[in-house]
What we know:
Layout: H1 4-10, H2 18-31, H3 39-51, H4 55-58, E1 72-87, E2 104-109, E3 114-119, E4 135-144, E5 147-150, E6 155-159, H5 163-180
Parallel strand pairs: 3-5
Antiparallel strand pairs: 1-2, 1-4, 2-3, 4-5, 4-6
Protein name: RecQ-mediated genome instability protein 1
Domain RecQ mediated genome instability protein 1 OB-fold: 96-172
GO biological process, one term: resolution of meiotic recombination intermediates
Amino acid sequence: MSFIPQIQQKLNLLALKDSFISDCLQEIQQNHSDLLADINSITEYIYNIFLYNDIRLTSNPVLRSYSFDTKEDILEHAILQCDEYSDIGNTIDDQLNETKNRVMKLSLTDGTTTIYGFESNHIDGICMGMKPGFKVALRQVKVRRGVLYLNNSNIQVLGGDVEELVRLEEEKRSELERKYRPSYIPLSVCRVAQVPLGAVDVSEEENNDS
Length: 210
């Protein structure tokens, strides 16, 4: 009996590709066969693998049904990957450090479509030392002219990273250091606790952002 339908049902929020699930199951069968007795252990293992792989390889696109050309809309829920981020509220000298004036800009993707989210109020789960490729769960996000307005009530940082994106970010920071000689927070200084599968929350909640 195939586990794929059961796994898809339990991990439906991740919109995982069947091919990715099959690869994970093969890995489990070869190296972690003790997990096969419990579907919850299997899904938790696959969720953890998802967090540390590029969403382009793991998931089907979920943003195609949304039109980001309208003046105002609501993105009900989605789990996306942050490819890169910057602080547009500060100068070059300060934008890769933590300051009280920060305004984070996140480049978010479902693997096909890229959209930008801006920090309308300080988001506790994000800092300038995070490794890119981390996954986020969004719920009831206000969209204005194609831009997401993010705050603590509508974004949950799940954790994870993507090795290739980390390498590119490190190269970018090295180049900026050579050019501007600021003192940047190193990647991985900010280690946000990984959210377990059972705590992922995209339930509807009133958005208090104006």
